[in-house]
Design a protein that fits this description.
It is built from ten helices and 14 strands. The chain has 343 residues and is an alpha+beta fold. It has two domains: 156 residues, Roll (FAS1 domain); 136 residues, FAS1 domain. A hairpin with a 3-residue loop joins strand 13 and strand 14. The longest helix has 28 residues.
Length: 343
């Protein structure tokens, strides 16, 4: 970090302290509590002070008062989002630390301060750290997804997701550690994280989810041809085989011990059979007997008669169950399937 940046950060911190004091006074002055009293004609009733229980500050007030989230408050103020977290609507906020924002600025030479980030990008990033309702640490489970308030890039304004890992310590998107949890506010809960999260496309979501390492390995057999295409604008709907699904595929042929043993033409045909281009089809938009044309030109048929399943062109395969739905990225959606689909 340059001396000029250090000077700027020191000045920012001093200004932030004064600004925070002003904003705390402003927020406190803007919140009024109405007390009701009753009057008895014969007896004077002495009011009894009830003990205070539960949180007393809203999300914005807690963030303003916590020195770890100075930069987050600056970002929220820059994006005109502070008021969102002063009301009664409940949210869960994954709050990046000051160092997390410094690290983010270091990823782009044009960003010397938070205000250098264009408004749309900053708003999308901040909303990607928020989910509706109260989500406590005990509510998080391994290999699951959280719907955020960010809808960047999704065709029907669908909520993009954060991937959660719990095993070995709580981590989000396989990149950000959770440093403090369950800071409860009157209108939600805050968890402190050590990196700024960025909305992910479908390729990036597959990469960060340990259940799709075989799929990612299969895609990269072709260099960046397939991953590059699937990182484009889309939209795409991807039926993603799990690692177990790929192992079952390898076990189906005694000459296949690894992905490299599968003929490239066969592997390419199989992989492109899992992609529907031009559609962001979430689970509630897939209907009984719907026919989906895949990237390789073959078709899949939807069967909802016994759970969400797909009928492939390979009559010997049988129905394949969809086991995870609506993993929404910025350019499409992923649904996990229990077996590799055979064209």
């Amino acid at each position: 970090m340059t001396d000029s940046m250090l000077y700027f950060l020191n000045r920012k911190n001093n200004k932030m302290k004064n600004w925070k004091k002003f904003l705390i006074i402003f927020l406190s002055a803007s919140i009024s509590t109405t007390f009701s009293s009753c009057e008895d004609d014969e007896d004077d009733i002495t009011p009894v002070t009830q003990p205070t229980t539960g949180p007393t500050q809203n999300i914005a007030e807690i963030a303003i008062a916590d020195s770890r989230t100075d930069s987050l408050v600056v970002a929220l103020e820059t994006a005109n989002l502070v008021a969102t977290f002063t009301g009664t609507t409940e949210y869960t906020v994954f709050a990046p630390t000051n160092q997390a924002f410094i690290n983010l600025l270091g990823t782009n030479s044009a960003w010397n301060r938070i205000s250098d980030i264009d408004a749309t990008t900053l708003t999308n990033v901040l909303l990607y750290h928020v989910t509706a309702g109260k989500v406590f640490a005990s509510d998080l489970t391994d290999n699951t997804y959280i719907n955020t308030l960010n809808t960047q890039g999704s065709v029907n304004n669908e909520a993009t997701v954060i991937e959660v890992d719990i095993a070995g310590g709580a981590k989000l998107n396989n990149s950000s550690n959770v440093e403090a949890v369950d800071i409860e506010a009157t209108n939600g809960v805050i968890h402190i994280i050590d990196a700024v999260l960025l909305p992910r496309n479908i390729v990036e979501l597959a990469i960060i989810d340990e259940r799709f390492t075989s799929l990612v390995a299969a895609l990269t057999v072709f260099g960046d041809t397939l991953t590059g295409a699937l990182s484009g604008n889309g939209p795409f709907t991807v039926f993603a085989p799990t690692n177990d699904a790929f192992q079952r595929l390898l076990d189906s042929d005694t000459t296949w011990n690894s992905l490299s043993d599968i003929p490239r033409a066969t592997l390419n045909a199989v992989l492109t059979y899992h992609v529907v281009s031009g559609a962001n089809a979430q689970a509630d938009e897939i209907t009984q007997d719907q026919v989906l044309t895949t990237l390789n030109g073959s078709q899949l048929t939807v069967d909802l008669s016994a759970g969400a399943q797909l009928i492939t062109s390979n009559m010997a395969q049988g129905n394949v169950s969809i086991i995870v739905t609506d993993v929404q990225g910025t350019n499409g959606v992923i649904h996990a399937v229990e077996n590799v689909l055979l064209p």
